[in-house]
Structure formats: structure tokens, C-alpha cells
Amino acid sequence: MGKFERLVAEGLSVPVAGWDFSWFSGRATEQRPSWGYARLMGERMAAATRALDLQTGGGEVLARMPKPPPVLVATEGWPPNAVLARQRLAPLRGTVVEVGEDADLPFADDSFDLVVSRHPVTTRWDEVARVLAPGGTYFSQQVGAGSVRELIDFMMGAQPVSPARHPDRAVAAATTAGLDVLDLRSEALRMEFFDIAAVIVFLRKVLWTVPDFTVEAYADRLRALHLAIESGGPFVAHSRRFLIEARKPAREG
């Protein structure tokens, strides 16, 4: 078995449930946004009374908060991740509810004074506004338009960049839902993949990057990328992230 085949086999053997990216240490790197989402989220959680984390994944980021609120609820749509999230959030007395990314939220109006979400697949701004209590805050780090497009284009050929994830669209949607946008920041962040196993694990884990990805279907492109990395060094791409914070207006009187 050659080096390419060994790396492919390794890439296929790695579990991809949850949002723990520790396996990538030494295999791939991604620059982090300057604002520090986990720290800022933790500060807001410490001041909250009833908080909701949407699309929590395996609860990895939420579980690191230093001081959970008295009521902590998370949603997750993929059952394997929901199992991991329940395990991680149990010490924080957090509740995990299985809810699809596009589904209505099974919570009463005005239920939470803080709603957070890191890298949501989609944002139901109408539902966020509904479950927020007056004066409550939505705080989210999201994937921006054109994220990792270098890898997408290498694997699939040149692809159009959808404007759906542009920060301006998020601002418009939040405003339409009746929220006041307090903060908006965006950055492009350098990524490096040091071998083809890391690329395979990334594409298996972050499913929407190349939606129909399988090793068999993309064998030729994977081999071409392997040869490019072997001869020219790490494959470089750029992730795009934006931070948005919005508040539901307090009731008058």
C-alpha cells in the first residue's frame, strides 16, 4: 500500500461525530477570529438567567463556559451529536433538545434572555426573535460567504459564491425579524492542510463543504491534491467568519 492509500485509509477511519477538532493537531491549522467567540459567549452566559444554544453540535464550546446560567438549554439536529452534547452538558445541568436546523423551536414566546449559536447551518431569525425575551440578546459566530472556496473549487471546479451567508444578509434578516443589530465583525482566516488525510476528515466532518463528497467519487481530485501537497507544501484555503450580536427591543412602559 502506497502513501496515498495509507493516508486515505486513515482519513476514513477517524470518527467525525461532534465538533471536536483536536485530531487535526499537526495535520491542519486554522487561524482563529480575533474577537474570541468562546470568551465573549462565556461572559454573556455568566450574566444570563435563561439561555439557549442553537445547533450546539456535541456541546464542545458550550461545555467550556466558566459559569453556566441557572437555566441552560441547547438544541441539536443530528442524533449522534445530541448524545455527545447530553454527556458534556450534564455537569452544567444543561438540557439538550433534538431540533432540526430549519424547524420551529419548541419553546414558548419570550423564553430566553440570551440565545447563542456558533456556526449555525441556518438561522431562523423569526424563531430567534420569538423566543427571546424583550431586551434579550442573540449572539452568534457564523460562517461567511465563500468560506474555504479554494478547497471547494479544487474539488468541484469553480463554483459561484452564494450571497446567502453574506453578513449584510444576516443584518437585513435580523432587522426584518424585529431585532436591533448591536455589533457586526467579519474576518478571512488562513487554513492549511498538511496531508490528504486531513482533507478527507475535514470534508467528512464539515459535510456542506462538498455536499456529495465520497472518497470514491473524488478519488482523482484527492490524488491530485495529495501530489500537490507532496510537491508544494500545505494546501492553503481561507475560512470566513462573522460575529453578529442583536437585541430584541424592550417593551415600552
Automatic annotation (TrEMBL):
Presence of the UniProt keyword Aminoacyl-tRNA synthetase in the record: no
InterPro entries: 23S_rRNA_MeTrnsfrase_RlmA (IPR052939), Methyltransf_11 (IPR013216), SAM-dependent_MTases_sf (IPR029063)
Entry keyword set: Methyltransferase, Transferase
Domain Methyltransferase type residue range list: 52-139
One of the record's GO molecular function terms: S-adenosylmethionine-dependent methyltransferase activity
Gene3D superfamilies, alphabetized: Vaccinia Virus protein VP39
GO biological process: methylation
Signal peptide range in chain numbering: none
Coiled coil: none
Xref: Pfam families: Methyltransf_11
CDD domains in UniProt: AdoMet_MTases
Family matches, as PANTHER family: METHYLTRANSFERASE, METHYLTRANSFERASE TYPE 11 DOMAIN-CONTAINING PROTEIN
Protein name: Methyltransferase family protein
